[in-house]
Write a structure and sequence with these properties.
Low-confidence stretches: none
Strand order of the largest sheet: 2-1-3-4-5
CATH architecture: 3-Layer(aba) Sandwich
CATH topology: Rossmann fold
Radius of gyration: 13 Å
Number of domains: 1
Structural class: alpha/beta
Helix content: 40-55%
Strand content: 15-25%
Length: 126
């Protein structure tokens, strides 16, 4: 498989857990701890999928999503918003309007997240 997935989250535990699980599933995992670095790594590594937190230092995940979807080089990368900030319908609607492909709130079910990752990653080509 060897498809690349970028995780953008400022919580070391989330990066570690998701990184380990996705690596075990055969994905090549790249990590970033803030929005600016996430955008740089998306451009550099061209992942098939980005798992993106909303609450990040610097620019937030909504803005990262918007910037990635506006950029010709990164607009086709699938994005899953993974957030603990809110289950508000408005936040989900905002994420989807900005171009996110999915929206998951923390705490999340790992098998559900993996199923969504596999579905979106399989829709993308390397």
């Amino acid at each position: 498989m060897n498809k690349k997935i970028l995780i953008v989250d400022d919580e070391p535990a989330i990066l570690r857990i998701l990184g380990d699980v996705l690596t075990d599933e055969g994905y090549n995992v790249i990590a970033a701890t803030d929005g600016e670095t996430g955008i740089e790594k998306a451009k550099e590594f061209n992942p098939v999928l980005i798992i993106l937190d909303v609450m990040l230092p610097g620019i937030n995940g909504f803005e990262v999503c918007k910037l990635l979807k506006e950029n010709e080089q990164t607009k086709k990368i699938s994005i899953i918003i993974l957030t603990g900030i809110s289950t508000l319908v408005e936040h989900k609607q905002k994420a989807l309007q900005l171009g996110a492909d999915d929206y998951i709130t923390k705490p999340f079910d790992m098998s559900d997240l993996l199923n969504r990752v596999k579905t979106l990653a399989s829709q993308q080509s390397e």
